[in-house]
């Protein structure tokens, strides 16, 4: 059993992850794009922060030059040229701050969109897990009922609304029921036994092309889907008990003569010996 478990784990480990649904894939791509844009905006905000700080320092220096010039202090040519660019520096500072506010707003909008996408992804994931669990319970219910002899007879002959299945297909289903719903094996722990059963269910739900019981899990999944859609398992017929034939006792009325014959005892004549006869006659 442990060897089978290790083999099953090895088989699953080599497979790629199952494909996402189109909606989940789209949400995942949107979330990835939002994350990338958020990174770009964060980097841009950092650069703007440093740029604004440098412009503010330059503006303060130019304001100092203007004050010194206003107070009549002499300035060199470079300082005078810098003073002439004061308006331009002020405009650049306002533009950088406006750009910073715009980027901050975009960052907040992207953050909200990212959180919304994450919540949506979480809801879809929960729905997918519920659907998978519901399917497992449905399959388990079908397989458990297929272990009943009268249910097998219905599918052999197509009775009581059951599909008519070839003997080979029916036997595969019965054997698969033993794999997925096995009797307790005391030689291994419950966890190990249920883990092995879960591997069979996993391959079945994924519709794997791996071989099982002379066919594939995909074929078994399609076959079980047909059984579920047939409607037979909505109300599985109970096994009909075979009753022994009943014996009915009848009574006919008796006539008065017959009744008298039944009630009056019959007196048998008795023989009398000679001495007794003589005594009676004397």
TrEMBL record:
Pfam families in the record: Caprin-1_dimer
Signal peptide limits: none
InterPro entries recorded: Caprin (IPR028816), Caprin-1_dimer (IPR041637)
The organism's place on the tree of life at top rank: Eukaryota
Family named by the database record: Belongs to the caprin family.
Segments forming domain Caprin-1 dimerization: 119-234
Name of the protein described by the UniProt record: Caprin-1 dimerization domain-containing protein
């Amino acid at each position: 059993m442990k060897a089978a478990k290790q083999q099953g784990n090895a088989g699953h480990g080599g497979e790629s992850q199952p494909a996402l649904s189109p909606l989940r894939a789209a949400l995942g791509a949107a979330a990835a794009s939002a994350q990338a844009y958020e990174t770009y905006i964060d980097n841009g905000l950092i650069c703007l922060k440093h740029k604004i700080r440098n412009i503010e320092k330059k503006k303060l220096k130019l304001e100092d030059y203007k004050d010194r010039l206003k107070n009549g202090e002499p300035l060199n040519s470079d300082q005078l040229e810098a003073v002439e660019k004061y308006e331009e520096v002020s405009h650049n500072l306002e533009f950088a701050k406006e750009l910073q506010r715009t980027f901050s707003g975009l960052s907040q909008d992207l953050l909200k969109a990212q959180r919304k996408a994450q919540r949506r992804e979480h809801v879809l994931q929960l729905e997918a897990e519920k659907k998978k669990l519901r399917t497992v319970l449905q399959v388990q219910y079908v397989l458990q009922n297929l272990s009943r002899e009268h249910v097998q007879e219905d599918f052999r002959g197509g009775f009581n609304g059951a599909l008519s299945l070839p003997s080979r297909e029916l036997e595969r289903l019965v054997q698969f029921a033993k794999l997925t719903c096995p009797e307790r094996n005391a030689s291994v722990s419950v966890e190990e036994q249920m883990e092995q059963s879960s591997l069979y269910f996993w391959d079945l739900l994924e519709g794997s092309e791996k071989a099982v019981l002379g066919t594939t899990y995909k074929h078994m999944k399609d076959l079980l889907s047909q059984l579920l859609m047939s409607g037979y398992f909505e109300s599985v017929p109970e096994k009909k008990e075979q009753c022994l034939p009943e014996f009915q006792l009848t009574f006919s009325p008796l006539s008065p003569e017959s009744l008298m014959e039944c009630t009056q005892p019959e007196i048998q004549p008795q023989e009398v010996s000679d001495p007794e006869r003589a005594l009676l006659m004397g």
